[in-house]
Design brief:
heterodimer; A: mainly beta; six-stranded mixed beta sheet; B: mainly beta; seven-stranded mixed beta sheet
Chain lengths: 114, 119
Amino acid sequence: QKEVEQNSGPLSVPEGAIASLNCTYSDRGSQSFFWYRQYSGKSPELIMSIYSNGDKEDGRFTAQLNKASQYVSLLIRDSQPSDSATYLCAAIREYGGSQGNLIFGKGTKLSVKP
Amino acid sequence: GAVVSQHPSRVICKSGTSVKIECRSLDFQATTMFWYRQFPKQSLMLMATSNEGSKATYEQGVEKDKFLINHASLTLSTLTVTSAHPEDSSFYICSAVGLRGLLDQETQYFGPGTRLLVL
């Protein structure tokens, strides 16, 4: 089982809609989770971090964490064409080799159509 | 705040030569820096973890003698690809984690990446 799993997409939403991105993780001990956005040919940029169960909102973005179900999600409200990118979910590995390192999912490609 | 730079942004070299990539934290001191590699349409793959003043920890399958990492100060880490070959052509990205108390200890801030092409 992969440590962090994401649907590769592409996820296509119309402009102004809500985009919902999901991620599951296998390390039950993970406590810290991150969403990064990566535009084609560029490096990842941090959108949000989340550590506690529940929702965390920042502008148009809301991260949701459910540790019991081992999933993390990112909602993007009022999606814009400029939000079109690959969204990477990441978790801090808590056990085994390289403990403390960030483990990335393969990313979900989002396309927002004007 | 939390700006990380990389130099060069793009490099083309001949097979067999060595290439050095610098990663700098510009406005904070980084306890730990990470080096990643990303091939086209693939996920980020961690290559090694670099702590200031100590030897880097390499991920399984990454040759430490080929990818030399030096973390000489709290703001600079370098990755040297020795005897580069075409299969080393990739997008190399570094990230940094800030010192305790100054920044979130776990959030990694990424540099803009270095695109390496070995001919």
